Automatic annotation (TrEMBL):
Lineage, opening ranks: Bacteria, Bacillati, Bacillota, Clostridia, Eubacteriales
Protein name: Probable zinc-ribbon domain-containing protein
UniProt xrefs under InterPro entries: Zn-bnd_dom_prob
Residues annotated as domain Probable zinc-binding: 28-73
Gene source species: Caloramator quimbayensis
């Protein structure tokens, strides 16, 4: 159960962490949509998703306005194809 380094016996000892690591929780945030001015909640799960994806900024639009904006961009891009 040990390693022999330069003739000395070294034992590996596992010491349990006396305090479990605290997990940092991001509280939900209330944000005002820049398009419709309604409040929406930027949940802890959404914040974690943004962090994992490397997004630097919080959303500026509520989910409904984001969806509408995405649809508008899609329809505009179709117009340019013809």
């Amino acid at each position: 159960m040990g390693n022999n380094i330069n003739g000395d016996l070294i034992h590996k000892v596992l010491i349990p962490n006396p305090k479990p690591q605290e997990v940092y929780k991001m509280p939900d945030k209330t944000i005002v949509c820049k398009d419709c001015n309604k409040e929406f909640v930027f949940t802890e799960g959404e914040q974690e998703f943004y962090k994992e994806k490397g997004f630097q900024n919080e959303p500026l639009r509520c989910p409904e306005c984001r969806k509408a904006r995405k649809q508008e961009r899609r329809s505009n891009s179709r117009d340019f194809r013809h």
